[in-house]
Design brief:
By secondary structure, the chain is an alpha+beta fold. It contains four helices and eight strands; from the N terminus they run βααββββββαβα. Strands 1, 2, 3, 4, 5, 6, 7 and 8 form an eight-stranded mixed beta sheet that branches. The longest helix has 34 residues. The N and C termini lie far apart (55 Å).
C-alpha cells in the first residue's frame, strides 16, 4: 500500500534538515511512538495503536539513510505485535523542499501491514494517515518554535516508558460515518416506511 502526504513547517530548509537529522527529538513528535535506542543511523522503538476498545503494541527497528544534497531521507522500518501475530513493515521517504511558508515536506510511505489494522481499506488508511501526519506536523511546528528545539537533543525513552496509544478508531470514525451515511439513510428511510405502512394497516 502506498500513501502520500505533504505538510509544511515554518522553518528554512537548512534548519528543517538539521532538525530531521535529530531522531531523538523528531521521533516523539510522531503520535503513538517511543524511541528506545539510537545507535548512529539504527534505532529501535515501540508504537501503540488503539482501535475501539482494542489496543495493539508493536516493537520494531529501523535504519535511516540520507541524501544531503537532495535534502532527502529514507527510513526502513519493520515491526511486529508484542501480543499477536500482526506485522508491519514500511519504507518511508521524506523530501524537503523550499516553500514560501518555510519548508514543504513530501512523505511517501510504502506500507505492508497484517493483522487487525489491515481490515481498513486503502481509502480509510489514507485519511487516517492524513490525520496522524497532521498531528506530527503540528508537533514539529511546536518544536521549531522553541529557540532551543533544534539544538538540544531529547533523551531516549526509558525502557519502562509506555507510548500513548494513537486512536485509529477515533481517527477512522468520521470516515466510516461519512462513507456509511447513504446506506444508513436508506435503512432508516425503509424502517420509517415500514412503520408507517404498519400503522395504516392497523
Amino acid at each position: 500500500m502506498q500513501l502520500d502526504h505533504t505538510f509544511t513547517v515554518p522553518a528554512a530548509p537548512d534548519d528543517a534538515w538539521r532538525l530531521f537529522h535529530d531522531l531523538a527529538r523528531v521521533a516523539p513528535c510522531m503520535p503513538g511512538a517511543v524511541l528506545d535506542t539510537l545507535d548512529g543511523d539504527a534505532f529501535t522503538g515501540r508504537v501503540k495503536v488503539k482501535v475501539g476498545a482494542v489496543q495493539m503494541s508493536y516493537r520494531g527497528e529501523g535504519t535511516v539513510t540520507r541524501d544531503a544534497a537532495a535534502r532527502s531521507m529514507r527510513l526502513a522500518l519493520t515491526g511486529s505485535e508484542t501480543r499477536g501475530a500482526g506485522t508491519a513493515s514500511a519504507t518511508v521517504t521524506a523530501d524537503l523542499e523550499p516553500d514560501p511558508a518555510g519548508t514543504r515536506v513530501r512523505v511517501r510511505t510504502d506500507l505492508d501491514i497484517t493483522g487487525r489494522p489491515a481490515q481498513f481499506g486503502r481509502g480509510i488508511m489514507t485519511e487516517v494517515g492524513d490525520r496522524i501526519v497532521g498531528q506530527f506536523a503540528g508537533r514539529l511546528e511546536e518544536l521549531l518554535s522553541d529557540p532551543q528545539g533544534a539544538a538540544t537533543a531529547a533523551p531516549v525513552a526509558a525502557a519502562a516508558t509506555e507510548p500513548e496509544a494513537v486512536d485509529l478508531g477515533a481517527a477512522a470514525l468520521p470516515v466510516l460515518v461519512r462513507r456509511a451515511a447513504v446506506p444508513v439513510a436508506v435503512v432508516l428511510a425503509a424502517v420509517v416506511l415500514v412503520r408507517l405502512l404498519g400503522r395504516r394497516g392497523r
